[in-house]
Structures are given as C-alpha cells and as structure tokens.
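Supplementary Note 2. Why include the ligand at all?

Several targets in our set were suspected to adopt different conformations when bound, so apo predictions alone were not considered sufficient. For every target with a known small-molecule partner we therefore ran a joint prediction. The input for adenosine-5'-diphosphate is given below.
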Amino acid sequence: MSTARSAPPINIRGIAKRFGSVPVLSGLDLDVASGEFLTLLGPSGSGKTTLLMILAGFVRANAGSIDIGGEEVITKPPHKRNIGMVFQNYALFPHMNVFHNIAFPLKQRRTSAAETAERVEKVLDLVQLQGLADRRVDQLSGGQRQRVALARAIVFEPRIVLMDEPLSALDKGLREHMQIELRSLHRRLGMTTVYVTHDQREAITMSDRIAVMNKGRIEQLDRPETLYARPRTRFVAGFIGESN
Ligand code: ADP
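The joint prediction is reproduced in token form.
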C-alpha cells in the first residue's frame, strides 16, 4: 500500500438535508484534517449516517458544499470521489470467495489481472487474512468478514475512508480486538478517516477528535480527553459520561 500520497483534508460547509419536510441536518460545518481519525458520535437518529452518505455521494444534500483536498465534490458520483467505505448496508457477496470480494472495486476500475492479484495479496497481509483468498465469505467468522470488508475498502488505496458502525455486529472481545487493529491500520496508512459510532467508549479509544452530534447538529468537536474533561453542553456531558 502506498503511504506516500498525502491524505486530503475534508471541509464541509452548510450541509442541509431534509427528508420530506423533516430536517435531518441543518447547516452543518465540519473540517477533518489531513490523515485525521475523526468520529461522529451521537444517539440513534442524530444524523450521523446521513452525513456519511452525503460525504460518500449516495445521498444528495439540499444545500452546502464538500471540499476534498481543494476540490468541490458535491456533484460528483461516489465512484469518482476516491473514498473507501465500510457501511452496514454495503454487504459482502456471501457466495463469492474472499479474493473476488476484495477485488470487486478494482474490477470496477478496470485494473489489470496482474495488478489486482498483487494488490489483493498485499491487502490480505495487511488485515492478516493470509491464505484465506479462496474461502467463501459465508464460511468466515464475523471478525474475518469484517476484515474482508475493510480490505475491500482500502484495496484501491483511497485517501479517505468512511466507516459506519463497522464493528457493531461483533461480540465484545472481537470488537475490542478490531478497534486496536483498525487504529493501527490507520496509523500505518494514514488515510483521512470519518468513523461513525453511537458507542462513546469506542469513540474515545479510537479517535483523534470526536464530533458529538445531537439532532442534526454538532454540539462539540474536540479531542476525547477535552470532551471528557470540559463538556460544553449538558447533552455532551451526559452522553460522554454515560457508561454503556
Ligand atoms: P444516525 O445515523 O445518527 O442514527 P440517521 O442519519 O440514520 O441517524 O437518521 C437521521 C434521521 O433521518 C432519522 O430521524 C431518520 O429516521 C431520518 N432518515 C434517515 N434516512 C432517511 C430516509 N431515507 N428517508 C426518511 N428519513 C430518513
């Protein structure tokens, strides 16, 4: 994997989204620094997934702009944004083997067979699934599947990775193990990462900074220790202090 290209910052301005007459995001601003691991943390329904889908290009905002590395992307389709994604509803193909699942984004980009083989092998190493290329996905454990999804998200060397509750289906032990793996992968590859969770402990463990969301707004954006020590609103204090 190449780490030489610098990961672009993301600058989000005035993003608004309504579903019918219901406002979900109203004029949201957010800056994600180059190579940063930023987490959107908030209760169910606070607009985290909607914001991620807008960033990915799957949902069109009603207003606002998204600048990635100096380029306006708001009207670009998802495949032209060079973003890797691990979404809950962006499932693997269970009847296909690990190799073909991971190679899928390369096929979409018409990568040659030789380069595809080379890249898939490298990324299998990275997520520690060496030797499992021929295994059908429906014969893997939850943690292994999660790593296949991750491998597929990074195989084309995206400079930005979006992850929506990627560990929510795993049991506690495996989840904690994968948190460490994800974090160390991020440290090695340095992609600008936007991560979504409703689990405050997970957010605190993994993030450079956390944006606490409530009802479609960012209540506070800070480093985990600052949020914990100096919550700016009662909502943030309650949400960060709460144990789950
Ligand atoms: P979160 O990820 O924080 O749980 P979401 O972004 O999924 O929040 O949802 C925010 C709000 O937008 C919720 O009230 C949800 O019901 C609504 N919503 C999300 N997607 C749609 C949609 N496609 N159509 C209508 N309402 C939606």
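Residues 19, 24, 42, 44-50 surround adenosine-5'-diphosphate (CB under 6 Å). The mean pLDDT is 91. Comparable summaries for the other entries are listed in the accompanying table.
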